[in-house]
Amino acid sequence: MTLSGAWSRTARGAMLLGDDGRLQQTIFGEMSALAVATGSINLGQGFPDEDGPAEVLEAARQAIRDGVNQYPPGNGMPVLRNAITAHQRRFYNLDVDPDLEVLVTAGATEALAATILALTDEGDEVVTLEPFYDSYAAMLGLNKVIHRTVALRAPDFQPDLDDLRAAVTDRTRLILINNPHNPTGAVLPVETLQLIVALAHEHDAIVVTDEVYEHLTFDAPHVPVATLAGARERTVTISSAGKTFNTTGWKIGWITAPTELLQAILAVKQYLTFANGAPFQPAIAVGLALPDTFFHNVAADLRGKRDVLSAGLTAAGFGVSAPQGGYFIVADAAPLGFHDAAAFCRQLPQLAGVVGVPLSAFVRPQNRAEYGSLLRFAFCKRKDVLERASAQLADLRR
Ligand SMILES: Cc1ncc(COP(=O)(O)O)c(C=O)c1O
């Protein structure tokens, strides 16, 4: 039976289908499938190819052996909420109440979904940076929210402060930022964060800050928005264990926010997943309590990987960005004569046995031209893999 008619004009799920009414594979799915089909090195999707700390993995195994296999509490297990509180105090000198101001979620993805559903109404405006992580636009679209953006332009991918001032108005409900930033690797300077907080005050908006790469900064320690003067009471901070502990498949994320906001988000979250990842929650609590050297080494290691891929891409003839944090580097294929990154990404497995994703995947259709020749590569891979990818990409010049 083929369904058609009124439902598809109004149903929110239908909005995410393609023009032919079918599920559109995301560019990440398409490129990962291409990597498998061609035996290419997959620098498209951002997941590490090495396991995280042995203590964390062992703690999960132990939890399963100990029978931690049933529904955990909806707001998260006390052991993890307490560990998140201790982490916020240790790294940022922030005091959050583990019972009232911390919520464990099914990854940052559920945290974002629950926050957007809980804090916006149809017709509200939400301001994000652009390019943006793809779930932002999907969730804003599902909630029929008007999506305003502030462009991040090459080479440094920092927002223009006047553009920011112009984008935030009394209609703005949320200013949703991501810092360190996927896909550009930009880290927002404190002055920009301060302006965002000031604009939120001026227009009575809430700051939602996606800080999943908080421990992966290369030049300076991460500055959470919530630590800035006047920010805490109107800031929802989202993070995730996946990036810090190489456990992207566990989908353990969390939110810290003032009680009133957190309770509204929890009210929605309890009907999304209710709860997830029982044996992984105590394991991530172990991770968050690891010594400072662990956190230092994670960032230093990733910085070294960034340098390997950056040098490889430069030698291959790409224009290359200078990421200050996160998993990704932006490469410009124009100097090699390729001006359409989406088409280039589809050719790249054949040309060099490497997969990347076009930056246009993180941009609204009307703004794609501006990012035409740019693509994103993930460097959260083993150094030998990055070296091999670099050597293969060097063939592009020949
Ligand atoms: C900026 C950003 N936010 C959120 C997520 C999703 O995180 P999680 O896997 O914890 O749901 C990602 C994952 O790539 C990301 O890059």
CATH uppermost class of the largest domain:
Alpha Beta
Instruction: Look up the CATH topology of the largest domain.
Output: Aspartate Aminotransferase, domain 2
Gyration radius, to the nearest Å?
Answer: 21 Å
Q: Low-confidence stretches at least 5 residues in length (pLDDT < 50)?
A: none
- What structural class do the secondary elements suggest? alpha/beta
Topology:
Elements lengths: L5 H5 L1 H4 L11 H12 L2 E2 L11 H12 L12 H15 L9 E5 H13 L5 E6 L3 H9 L3 E6 L9 H7 L4 E7 L11 H13 L3 E5 L24 E6 H4 L7 E5 L2 H14 L7 H9 L3 H25 L2 E2 L7 E5 L8 H12 L1 E2 L1 E2 L15 E5 L4 H12 L4
Parallel strand pairs: 1-11, 3-4, 3-5, 5-6, 6-7
Antiparallel strand pairs: 2-8, 7-8, 9-10, 10-13, 12-13
Q: Could you walk me through the main structural features you see in this protein, from its secondary elements to its overall organization?
A:
The structure is a single chain. This protein is an alpha/beta fold and 398 residues long. The protein folds into two domains: 11-51 and 293-397, Alpha-Beta Complex (Aspartate Aminotransferase, domain 1); 71-288, Aspartate Aminotransferase, domain 2. The protein contains 15 helices and 13 strands. The chain has helices at residues 6-10, 12-15, 27-38, 54-65, 78-92, 107-119, 134-142, 161-167, 190-202, 241-244, 259-272, 280-288, 292-316, 341-352, 383-394, and strands at residues 41-42, 102-106, 125-130, 146-151, 172-178, 206-210, 235-240, 252-256, 319-320, 328-332, 354-355, 357-358, 374-378. A seven-stranded mixed β-sheet has the order 2-8-7-6-5-3-4, sandwiched between helices. A four-stranded antiparallel β-sheet has the order 9-10-13-12. A hairpin with a 7-residue loop joins β9 (319-320) and β10 (328-332). α6 crosses α11. The radius of gyration is 21 Å and the shape is globular. The termini are far apart. The model has no long low-confidence stretch (mean pLDDT 95). Bound molecules: pyridoxal-5'-phosphate. Pyridoxal-5'-phosphate is lined by residues 46, 107-109, 133, 178, 182, 210, 212, 240, 242, 248, 251, 253.
